[in-house]
Amino acid sequence: MTSPITKAVIPAAGMGTRFLPATKAMPKEMLPVIDKPAIQYVVEEAVNSGLGHILLITGRNKQALENHFDRNVELETLLTARGDTDKLAQISPLSEAIDLHYVRQGDPLGLGHAVLKAETFVAGEPFALLLGDDIIEHGDELLADMIALAQHTNATVIALMEVPQAHVSRYGVAAVSETADPHIFTIEGFVEKPHAVDAPSRLVAIGRYVLQPGVFDVLRTVQPGFGGEIQLSDALDIMARTPTITGPVIGLVHQHRRFDTGDKLSYLKAIVQLAGEREDLGTDFNKWLKKYITRLI
């Protein structure tokens, strides 16, 4: 059993070109999902999983991220004067409850390169990696299970989800072998965005990892791969193929929903589904949505 895992790394340096022109001046991570920016869902997931030390890896023109998680004294004063305690609670900064850090990635050379920027922050400890585009249903429970599994096995743990064969080319795909637990797999290799016919399985990584610190040694040796970038999946492939050197790599299958807010269609699905389930919005929104769909058909 290792010491408690308390650190999370959240890469948020992407350009967001799929959402232009909205992301020309605003970070894609700040796009609202109903009334919260997408990145806040991810940070709250880390906090609710017991991770109190968080590093956001950012880039140029990402100051809005730091401002969002900082205090806005003028707004707080205004809401206090109005006695609007509900809205005041909604803007209370998470940074007061956690240790929040920022570092710039610099050159956008891929996810693996972004993770390398976290080495000083990690300081030789296992850590969680949460991709800022993914909103995971019951993600705090999933991450807590991954942390417990990593602590118990001293393994790198990757969240997996089964997708249709036609969709595997969008993801990093795991080659796996079964274990006694139907939701846990030993990962034997990893392929980044393979053609469907070449995919080793239909189990793909969904943006939640618990990484052992040895990943940094591997990343420093990785050559640019898919898209000319340093791919984390290439490092994970090496680790999975050399478990006696780097430790085992394990996959834990997530069985609930996952929304990719970096994809337009998935982003819209997230808003519609989450709004329809909200206590304060769901009833009226679903009535309107049914009428709208009726008109379409």
Overview of this protein structure:
By secondary structure, this protein is an alpha/beta fold. It has two domains: 7-262, Spore Coat Polysaccharide Biosynthesis Protein SpsA, Chain A; 263-297, no CATH class. The protein is built from twelve helices and 13 strands. Strands 5-4-1-6-11-8-12-10-9 form a nine-stranded mixed beta sheet. The longest helix has 15 residues, at 139-153. The chain is globular and about 60 Å long. The model has no long low-confidence stretch (mean pLDDT 90).
Give the overall average pLDDT: 90
Specify the overall morphology.
globular
| Structure classification | alpha/beta
The main pleated sheet reads as:
9 strands, mixed
Query: What is the CATH architecture annotation of the largest domain?
Result: Alpha-Beta Complex
Number of domains: 2
Q: Please give the order of strands in the largest beta sheet.
A: 5-4-1-6-11-8-12-10-9
CA radius of gyration = 20 Å
Quaternary structure of the protein: single chain
What is the CATH C-level name of the largest domain?
Answer: Alpha Beta
Question: Level of helix content?
Answer: 25-40%
CATH topology of the largest domain: Spore Coat Polysaccharide Biosynthesis Protein SpsA, Chain A
Q: Any low-confidence stretches, pLDDT <50, length ≥5?
A: none
The CATH superfamily of the largest domain is identified as Spore Coat Polysaccharide Biosynthesis Protein SpsA, Chain A
- Percentage of β-strand residues: 15-25%
